[in-house]
Specification:
Blueprint: H1 2-18, H2 24-43, H3 53-64, H4 69-72, H5 75-81, H6 86-95, H7 102-124, H8 128-143, H9 148-167, H10 170-183, H11 191-196, H12 203-218, H13 220-231, H14 245-260, H15 262-268, H16 273-289, H17 296-303, H18 306-314, H19 319-340
Helix pairs in contact: 1-2, 1-8, 2-7, 6-10, 7-9, 8-18, 8-19, 9-10, 12-16, 14-16, 14-18, 16-17
């Protein structure tokens, strides 16, 4: 846990040093340092860190012995008829013509995710420090130390795809979704966001969405079965005792507070309408996590917008109140992280 705490302390230190004044170049330096720190932590981790790191190493070594045509001959057949994700294995095998060391591979995957994440925060977050601290507490375990396939898919469909959503470039967005779904089929769940991103928060729309959330919770079993069949991951099944209770409470609370402050948020940042709609879609998928924890994979595509929404909420308070809320948020995130006490070690 110590190295994670050092990472967070450095984030706060860089922010105090570089962002005391709103100077874009200094903000850019802060984001650069924060991004590099997370590339180092993610890429130089030991295989014991993260649930899937060792398993992905076995796959990496196994694929080195196979010829390229093994990954290309039945690419589309596998993509549309089987639960495999052929784009990931093809990407991995092509990369092995350049690098053969698994640790270097982890560094490259870390760069593929962290660099777009840094730009995502730099470009769209009103409080970069809070965004990075939120990532360091809520999302690092999912995107930085495990799940390489979905880490790459999320970098493509969310962190890159969001720029096409904002620019309203449907063709490019569809292309990026297709590429991402070859790496992890769950990326297809992000497709509706393009069409709902600019949906205005009328009373009827908000009430309808909350009605959908409640309805999907009541009928979560058939909804779960439908998504499993569509996604091709028919190995997933309902599990007793599942449910991301704490995360669900947190996300719904943030969404309700954001809706309460929505006039101020949208007056300051009209594009924040995207954050609202992303979190509403995330809330629609929360009932699935009460059947199988793996369904958090779907929620995470949208819940990354918490990195942008929470800073917007902080910004709605008056200057004096904002400082109290800001530092309270930083302290709370630190305490939450200490309570989890995650273990970390470098590969050496």
């Amino acid at each position: 846990m110590t190295i994670y705490l050092v990472n967070m302390a450095l984030l706060v230190g860089w922010a105090l040093l570089l962002m005391r004044h709103d100077i874009p170049s200094r903000r850019g330096w802060f984001v650069s340092f924060a991004t590099i720190q997370w590339i180092v932590l993610s890429g130089l981790r030991d295989i014991s860190v993260g649930d899937d790191t060792a398993q992905y190493k076995a796959l990496f070594l196994q694929s080195q012995a196979l010829p390229l045509h093994t990954f290309t001959d039945r690419f589309f057949q596998i993509l549309f008829t089987e639960s495999e994700d052929p784009g990931y294995y093809l990407f991995q095998r092509l990369l092995q013509y350049v690098i053969t060391d698994y640790q270097v591979y982890l560094v490259i995957v870390a760069m593929i995710f962290m660099i777009p994440l840094g730009y995502f925060i730099y470009k769209y977050s009103s409080e970069a420090l809070i965004s990075f601290l939120l990532f360091s507490v809520l999302f690092y375990e999912f995107f930085a130390v495990t799940g390489l396939r979905q880490t790459i898919a999320t970098a493509l469909v969310v962190l890159v795809g969001y720029h096409f959503v904002r620019a309203r470039k449907l063709g490019w967005f569809l292309l990026i979704v297709f590429v991402a779904m070859t790496i992890h089929k769950s990326a297809l769940i992000f497709l509706p966001f393009y069409f709902l991103a600019n949906k205005q928060l009328t009373k009827a729309y908000v009430m309808t969405m909350f009605g959908v959330i409640v309805g999907l919770f009541v009928f979560r079993n058939p909804f779960f079965d439908l998504l499993v069949q569509v996604s091709g991951y028919d190995t997933y099944s309902a599990m007793d005792g599942a449910g991301a209770v704490n995360f669900s409470i947190m996300l719904i609370t943030v969404l309700i507070v954001a809706l309460w402050r929505r006039d101020v948020i949208l007056q300051h940042n009209p594009s924040a309408i995207h954050f609202f709609n992303a979190l509403l879609l995330a809330a629609c998928l929360l009932p699935l996590t009460f059947l199988n924890p793996s369904m958090m994979r779907l929620v995470q595509y949208f819940s990354l917008f918490l990195l942008l929404m929470i800073p917007e909420i902080v910004g709605t308070f008056e200057r004096r109140e904002r400082l109290v809320v800001y530092y309270s948020a930083v302290m709370l995130l630190g305490l939450l992280f200490v309570r989890e006490a995650p273990v970390y070690s470098f590969f050496w």
